[in-house]
Amino acid sequence: MMQIAREFFNLPEQEQLKNYSDDPTKTTRLFTSFNIRTEKVANWRDYLGLHCYPINNFIGEWPTNPASFRAM
Fold first, then answer.
1. Residue 59 contacts by C-beta under 8 Å, 6 or more apart in sequence?
2. What does each C-alpha distance from 2 to 21, 31, 43, 65 come to in angstroms?
3. Burial bucket for residue 38 (CB in 10 Å: 0-12, 13-18, 19+)
4. SS3 state at 55
5. Where are the chain's structural domains?
6. What is the average pLDDT score of the chain?
7. How many CB atoms lie within 10 A of CB 69?
8. How far apart are CA 46 and CA 68, in angstroms?
9. Cys-Cys with 29: which of 10, 21, 58, 59 at CB 3.0–4.6 Å?
10. Concatenated DSSP letters of 10-37
11. For residue range 20-37, what is the model confidence (pLDDT) as tens digits?
């Protein structure tokens, strides 16, 4: 999983942003600890949240790039 995460975060920003969401109820989303609307200091972490169990309920929502996300 660590290798797949590295591959994801090494993708171009535009590709990563296809998974971005501010909606905390989404089961798969890219999000950040930084609120661009209110914070003036750009010091943040990016997160990729994935629900994983049971896998068949969530794998269809996972990123399609890199392809290794869906390889089983």
1. 70, 72
2. 22, 18, 23, 15
3. exposed
4. helix
5. 2-70
6. 86
7. 19
8. 20
9. 21
10. TS-HHHHGGGB-S-TT-SEEEEES--TT
11. 998 989 999 998 877 667
How far is C-alpha 47 from the chain's CA centre? 6
- Report the length, in residues, of the chain: 72
| 49 within 8 A of 29, measured Cβ to Cβ | yes
Which residue bears the tokens 């989303």? 29
pLDDT at position 30: 92
Spatial contact of 63 and 19, defined as CB atoms under 8 Å apart: yes
Which amino acid appears at position 33 of this protein?
S
Element (H, E) at 50: strand 46-50
What is the separation of C-alpha 64 from the centre of its chain, rounded to a whole number of angstroms? 11
Are 34 and 44 spatial neighbours (Cβ–Cβ below 8 Å)? yes
Question: Which of 25, 26, 28 is CA-nearest to residue 52?
Answer: 28
